[in-house]
Amino acid sequence: METVRAAAEEKGILVVGHFSEGLDGKGAPVGWSSKNPGSDSKIAVEGENGSYFLRMLSVNDYFGLGKKLSFDIRKYPYLSWRWKAGKLPEGGDIRKRETDEQAGQIYVVFPKFPKTLNTRSVGYIWDSQAPAGFSGTSTVYSKMKYFVLQSGPAKLNQWVCEVRDVYEDYKKLFQEEPPALGGVVLYINTQHTKSSAEIFYADIFFSSSPPPTPDVSGDRLASYLAPPAVSVKPPVKTSSIPGKGSLN
């Protein structure tokens, strides 16, 4: 992982989630903190076709994973990732508070003093019903705004690549220049509809320029960064350890 990170930084890439280091002793991906998944829910790091990915399963539950980062989003404005929804919350709809839950939720957090009142978040959502392209404000917290990128079950069990200009998205949503970025949060919840949901993430990174055309197969980061003569080895084992912890 250190080799991948060093090579990435030379190319103007900040790695957020490669997941090749598996889970730590608390059941969270190495470098991340977790918030209280229930006994039937799961956080796991698994391997497939030469790449690693994170699996989050929520069963009538809500929890998240957070990773602290600090940099100027103007220098690394592009956020890229792959995700795959295995199951969506039944009846979930981000537009209504009583059904505001989704399988896929990735938030870029911008702390602003005082943090408990002013921290901004830009969210990217895979919703069950709200249409792709819809944007809005969280029904719970007014400083959390989002874009719906994927909607419904049409692409279930398919890897989808996303690239967003977070700097421009922030300005569009908040009508101001952003403060320093503070971290990334992955969240999943199904407690309102009392259902279950499953989401997978891979190759989450920021970059200083738009990345190459996305490839939904294999390890996108390692394949892009490795020298031509070096092949990327597939993972040799799968980790699946439910864990509990807290976002710091």
Description:
There is one protein chain. The protein has helices spanning 2-10, 115-118, 166-174, 220-225; strands at residues 13-17, 33-35, 42-48, 51-59, 62-71, 78-87, 104-110, 120-127, 135-137, 144-151, 160-165, 181-189, 196-207, 239-240. The chain is mostly beta strands and 248 residues long. It has a single domain (2-88, 101-209), classed as Jelly Rolls (Sandwich). The strands form two sheets. Strands 1, 3, 4, 6, 11, 13 and 14 form a seven-stranded antiparallel beta sheet that branches. Strand 3 (42-48) and strand 4 (51-59) form a beta hairpin. The chain is globular. The protein starts with a helix and ends in an 8-residue tail after the last strand.
Secondary-structure topology with pairs:
Layout: H1 2-10, E1 13-17, E2 33-35, E3 42-48, E4 51-59, E5 62-71, E6 78-87, E7 104-110, H2 115-118, E8 120-127, E9 135-137, E10 144-151, E11 160-165, H3 166-174, E12 181-189, E13 196-207, H4 220-225, E14 239-240
Parallel strand pairs: 8-10
Antiparallel strand pairs: 1-13, 2-5, 3-4, 3-14, 4-13, 5-12, 6-11, 6-13, 7-8, 7-12, 9-10
In short:
The protein contains four helices and 14 strands.
Helix content: 10-25%
CATH class (first level) name: Mainly Beta
Which stretches of 5+ consecutive residues score pLDDT under 50? 228-248
* Alpha carbon gyration radius: 17 Å
Strand content: 35-45%
Question: Which structural class fits the helix and strand makeup?
Answer: mainly beta
| Total number of helices | 4
SSE order: HEEEEEEEHEEEEHEEHE
Count the beta strands.
Answer: 14
Question: Whole-Å distance between the termini?
Answer: 23 Å
Total domain modules: 1
Major β-sheet annotation: 7 strands, antiparallel
* CATH topology group: Jelly Rolls
CATH architecture: Sandwich
Backbone shape: globular
